[in-house]
Amino acid sequence: MSQTPRISFLASPTDEAQQALAALTAEHGACAPADADVLCALGGDGFMLQTLHRHGALGKPVFGMKLGTVGFLMNHYRPEDLLDRIAAAEPAKLRPLEMLALTESGASIGSLAYNEVSLLRQTRQAAHIQIDLNGETRLDELICDGVLTATPAGSTAYNFSAHGPILPLGSHTIALTPIAPFRPRRWRGAILKADTEIRFRVLDPYKRPVSATADSHEVRDVVEVTIRESRDRMVTLLFDPEHNLEERILSEQFMV
């Protein structure tokens, strides 16, 4: 990164974020993401995920500032010392999950997930799902509302709400968590090595249809979903040292 970084400011469509975008570009100038040294995302966690999906392939670090409802992946909005904050920021490197979903129609659809991949029942009837790990069946039939796989960065979100574990950043693990499981009653999920290949097979998909969602990308009527950590894609988020992502994840485990 150059001494005075070229910053590409990206903002959610809310009035507050758009006003911040206008003020920051007036002070620091406008720059296209491909030409920037760092991306600055203005919004909430949803917009941060949108930024990573749209521009993650560029390999540019992203410094987010919270101007939205949820800001776990964001820094506080404080525009006056932005250059100093970026210079002092601590990086957090994240690998997304790769999802490959096969549908009833025979389509094969791929997507990335920086938070989680979740399978959910589409109708009033519970889903019946078989779980294979690295080609070996580990659970013949999970009867549930759904099941999800979460990264460490995403483990504090939907995964934690479903009573899944919070994973330390850099632990090279992923969470496998059932959503409202009915059978087997005592199975509460697993913590897996990050390089584990997970395959969900939907049993009786016509009577009990299931959808798969990678972050916000939904695929309906899936029959099989394969998930693995990406070997090719990595993104870098920048955080203020006093409140970096590793500390946030740790703090979540002591909230009462």
CATH superfamily of the largest domain: Probable inorganic polyphosphate/atp-NAD kinase, domain 2
Q: How are the strands of the biggest sheet laid out side by side? A: 6-5-16-13-8-9
* CATH-derived architecture of the largest domain: Sandwich
Number of strands: 17
- The SS-based structural class is alpha+beta
The whole-angstrom Rg is: 19 Å
**CATH level-1 class of the largest domain:** Mainly Beta
Q: Which regions are unreliable across 5 or more consecutive residues at pLDDT < 50?
A: none
Task: Please give the count of helices.
Answer: 5
CATH topology of the largest domain: Tumour Suppressor Smad4
Enzyme class: transferase
Function: Involved in the regulation of the intracellular balance of NAD and NADP, and is a key enzyme in the biosynthesis of NADP. Catalyzes specifically the phosphorylation on 2'-hydroxyl of the adenosine moiety of NAD to yield NADP.
GO molecular function: NAD+ kinase activity
Keywords: ATP-binding, Cytoplasm, Kinase, NAD, NADP, Nucleotide-binding, Transferase
